Amino acid sequence: MRPEPTARDESFDNERFDIAVIGAGVVGCAVVRRLALAGAKVVLIEKGSDILSGASKANSAILHTGFDAPPGSLELELIKAGREEYLSLGPSIGLDLVKTGALVCAWNELEAEKLDAIAAQGRENGISNLALLSGPAARATMPGLSDRLVAAIEVADEHIIDPWTAPLAYLTQAVALGAHFLRNAELIGGRFDGEWHLATTAGAVTARAVVNTAGLYGDIVDARLGFTPEFEIRPRKGQFVVLDKAAYALVPRIVLPVPTEITKGVVVCPTAFGNVLIGPTAEEQEDRVRATVETATLEGLLARGAQIVPALAGMPVTAVYAGLRPASETKAYRIFCRPEKRAVTLGGIRSTGLSAALGLAQHALKLIEGFGLSLSPASDAPELRLPNLTETCPRDWQAPDHGEIVCHCEMVTRREIEAALISPVPPGDFGGVRRRTRAGMGRCQGFYCNARLAEMTRGKLREPLAVGDEPS
Amino acid sequence: MSDADVIIVGGGPAGVAAAVELRRQGVGRVVLLEREAQLGGATRHCSHSPFGMLDFHRVYFGAAYGKRLEAEAARAGVEVRTGHSVVRLIAGGRVELATPHGVETLQARRLLIATGARETPRAARLISGDRPIGVVTTGALQSYVAFHGLMPFRRPLIVGSELVSLSAVLTCLSHGARPVAMIEPGPHPLAPAPLMWFPRAMGIPFHCGAELLDIHGASRVEDVTLRLRDGTLHKLACDGVLLTGRFTPESALLLQSAIGVDPFSAGPAIDPYGRTADPHLFAAGNLLRAVETAGWSFREGRAVGRAIAEDLARDADAGLDGDALLPVTFDPPVKLVVPGLIRRGNRAAPAFPNFQLRFARQARGRLSLVLDGREMWAQEKTWRPERRIALPIPSAAQTADRVHIGFEERT
Predict the structure, then answer these.
(1) Do B111 and B281 contact (CB within 8 A), yes or no?
(2) Which of these, A65, A210, A277, B131, has the minimum number of CB atoms within 10 Å of its CB?
(3) In chain B, how many domains are there?
(4) End of a domain among B192, B220, B243?
(5) Three-state DSSP class for A144?
């Protein structure tokens, strides 16, 4: 068991913040950005040593249209708002996106019967760019699909994005506006007496309002803030397999199954980094921390991928991973606003957080505007551009004077890694280095570059790669 | 217009040997592309294994061997470009590469790819558990030690029992790490028996038929769960997992090209001259078949270099596209055969005198080479996995309609 966290006494910088956001997942990063743009003095409090330490580090990297979201739901509204903002914001700050489109594939008559209803729901949700295709017509748009395909719905406007640079960009923009990022700071408790006094493992924080974006710990953070929790997080594990870049040519589109009540099912899709992803599984579990991969499940995913796209059989595996989705006892987002305590909870964002994050941030701001904090919006969003890691835009290795290529599988340069280490939101752990640069993410998984990365990151990570090298 | 007569991708033993031989045979412009800053390939970080006994008649360790390769290449007039990383093979002898100054495309009359092999990492082994830091391959460990004076752990579990696994044990012991145990999932150690006494002699428990079921650790490895041969589960505290062996060809460039890879060897399929289905493209060294010694790769590179030189001399840009390619077939548990292709009509002396075989598991039985239904060679014994097996390629193979390596198991 983990020891109980203890509060550190010293006050954090003696500063008083307008708003404390708890949890630096994709939603927290988006909320901090929106609040900073609105002129709030914000602090982002994170238990882990880097952003995206929980649910947000593992997802399928799809920017959804919302075609299959519950009609009339807040989730749908926020997915659409978030997607729209992403489409306009993304390109201006270096976030590339690839319009792959998606095919919802029916592999038998029973599934094919459900397609009409899915298409009708999509249209009701305001997604007009949908087409019902016969099996052969769908395969004409993606020849690698198995000829067992009966029929499909084409959702032309689905995109794939870089799921790690997007939240990093949000927080980087917020930091440029003066937001504070407090890591290794687990919230222990909070008391409201007209303003919030928060105790964390990294010191005390005072703020006029709080936003709970704690993801897998959303219910626990609500309890620690003194609220009677109105929802319960029930972690749902998803395992993924990432195939070699050689598979990319075979999977130009997102291939979705006909969903069930419980899950959207196993997706086969290209990634913005030029790989192919198979996953996720949907496995209920108690544990909020451990997200293990399991040999038999991974083998099952590989087999499933090869059923859908037969040429994927035998394709080398580049990576495997598992993540936990912060599902709750119901499907809906669990959003609570307590104006009398100046607190907002954005909970139960189970699987559409990446798409809806910017929409959730807009929603949070709307709720906070009712708190009467009298904020004066920042004049302009600061100009910035995050380094591109996607395969569809020029990468650093293609430009001169990059120093050297450190990670050959993912073509990561020394210049990119050095820049990440001194960026406004530098990585706090090795996972953070990987997510910011892709170093070590490729097919050799560090056979060639791990030692070099250990050397380059000496003294810079909370848990160093080399032993005997722990920072004092 | 060509930028070079021959471009060689990869500056390990095979690539350098080929480059030097091409120059010795009078080929004009030979360009060797190496993505690292030094030549030597995997030998650069192997500080225990001696290299060079057969190629240079003296013994080198680690980086010194690479230095000797560099000297040989320079003396032979090979144009060596380090820090040059080929990113794409294009049919007809073209390569796209990343250089320190940006992207370039080069055209050669012939291309030789010799990118070597690497160990299979944790992800591709589909091992269960958390994904903490401290899970590395021998190559990564030796790079920690040789290049940076660092260690990724102090008390690792070692997985595997190939020759490289023993090298891993040595690296650990000589750098202050104490392996907690060594396991081999198969029923027998893969390295020859006397060598496998070494870990036990050093007090490291060694278990055959043991499986790694789970890796546990929040940020760094904390413990592992093993299932031993008798079925019992054991939780073992450790701070790392060292995955040794299970080498696989570094064939990404081919996998992403029209040539593809042989599903059995995971490297490019070649004919006995080292030539792939693309008549401009040759391959040599551990890329063909994981895994052989540096000396073996060196001699293979030299032989393929000679074959390329003869090819260039015979008919500068003769298209061989029309030549029929015959795949060599084989029975399981033979795992792979190199060369896996026969190209009808090639007449010069082949670079590969033998079919090189590996077995997927230990098997007792009769191994045979059959041309058009006629048995040319046979031997019965116990064949072990990961051991070098060589069958002479008869000249009649060149004109046969079926080349088959048969196996009848005796129980």
Answers:
(1) yes
(2) B131
(3) 3
(4) B243
(5) coil
Chain B interface test: which of A276, A289, A465, A470 (most B C-beta within 10 Å) = A465
B99-136 tens-digit pLDDT: 999 999 999 999 999 999 999 999 999 999 999 999 99
What is the pLDDT averaged over residues A26-46?
Answer: 97
Q: How far is A466 from chain B (nearest CA, A)?
A: 4
The predicted model gives B28-42 an average pLDDT of 96
Alpha helices in A293-428 (DSSP H): 295-308, 353-369, 414-421
Which H or E element spans position B338?
strand B334-338
Average pLDDT over residues A147-166: 97
Which residue range forms the structural domain that includes residue B87?
Answer: 1-119+247-322
Instruction: Check whether A2 has a pLDDT greater than 70.
Output: no
- Give the tens place of pLDDT for each residue, A74-99: 999 999 999 999 999 988 898 989 99
Residues B106 and B68 in one domain: yes
The verdict on B222 and B139 lying in the same domain is yes
- Nearest one of B40, B39, B20 to B30, comparing CA atoms: B20
Residue A208 contacts residue A43 (beta carbons within 8 Å): no
Tokens 């299979």 belong to residue:
B120
C-alpha B79/C-alpha B32 separation (Å) is 6
Q: Please tell me if residue A448 touches chain B, with a CB cutoff of 8 Å.
A: yes
| Backbone phi, psi, residue B392, to 5° | -60, 135
How many residues belong to chain A? 472
Other CB atoms within 10 A of residue B30 CB: 29
pTM of the model: 0.95
How many contacts does A have with B, using Cβ atoms within 8 A?
136
Same domain? For B2 and B114 the reply is yes
- Give percent helix, percent strand, percent coil of chain B, each to the nearest 5: 25, 35, 40
Residue type, A312: L
For chain B, how far is it from start to end, CA to CA, in angstroms? 60
DSSP code for A125: T
- Rounded to an integer, the average pLDDT of A446-454 is 96
Rounded CA-CA distance A35/A43 in Å is 10
CB–CB of B130 and A245 under 8 A?
no
pLDDT at A382 (0 to 100): 82
Distance from CA of A293 to the nearest CA of B (A): 5
Spatial separation of the C-alpha atoms in residues A426 and A50, rounded to whole Å: 8
Task: Establish whether this prediction's ipTM goes over 0.90.
Answer: yes
Strand partners, B405: B330, B369
Chain B positions touching A310 (Cβ under 8 A) are: none
Q: What are A274-318's pLDDT values in tens digits?
A: 999 999 999 999 999 999 999 999 999 999 999 999 999 999 999
Judgement on whether residues B199 and B253 belong to the same structural domain of the protein: no
